Amino acid sequence: MRVEVDWLDGMAFEASGDSGHKVLIDASPDVGGKNRGSRPMEILLMGLGGCSSIDVMLMLKKSRQDVTNCKAVIEAKRADTVPAVFTHIHVHFIVTGRGLSTKHIERAVKLSAEKYCSASIMLSKAAEMTHDFEVIEAD
């Protein structure tokens, strides 16, 4: 895997990877950015959410769950000192569907967190990680 990060101007950068997609990164105005893109630490959490969500959906699809929506809400706390690393990360899944099995969802979230999601497992080496979920019955 290879990623390139090219400076645009000010504190703005454009990142691209092997997939060819581009991501705009910018700093906050208080350090010279213009708020034109996501912050790097936000992107780390977005990657975690995407990685884990893909795992959960793949497993729920295999177990024939009728999922109509899946959202990962991630909240993180950072150290007060530099480097302001993540100290705690919580991933909360909201899974909506028809006749969903709580057992299947619980298993999918657990397996993603502990076995399959590379981002989750890597970040858990540096920060306390917790995961939970809620189920919403679709109309």
Can you name the CATH architecture of the largest domain? 2-Layer Sandwich
The CATH superfamily of the largest domain turns out to be K homology (KH) domain
Spatial order of the strands forming the largest sheet: 1-2-3
Structural class: alpha+beta
Question: Taking Cα atoms only, what radius of gyration do you get, to the nearest Å?
Answer: 17 Å
On the 0 to 100 scale, the average pLDDT is: 97
Helix-residue proportion: 25-40%
Our count of domains comes out at 2
Strand content: 35-45%
Largest sheet: 3 strands, antiparallel
**Helix segment tally:** 3
Alpha-carbon distance between the two ends: 42 Å
Task: Supply database-style keywords.
single chain; GMP Synthetase, Chain A, domain 3; alpha+beta; 3-stranded mixed beta sheet; elongated; 38% strand; N-terminal domain of TfIIb; 2 domains; 139 residues; 3-stranded antiparallel beta sheet
Explain this structure.
Helix 1 (40-62) packs across helix 2. The N and C termini lie far apart (42 Å). Helix content is 32%, strand content 38%. The relative contact order is 0.15. The chain is α+β, with helices and mostly antiparallel strands and 139 residues long. The protein folds into two domains: 1-38, N-terminal domain of TfIIb; 40-137, GMP Synthetase, Chain A, domain 3 (2-Layer Sandwich).
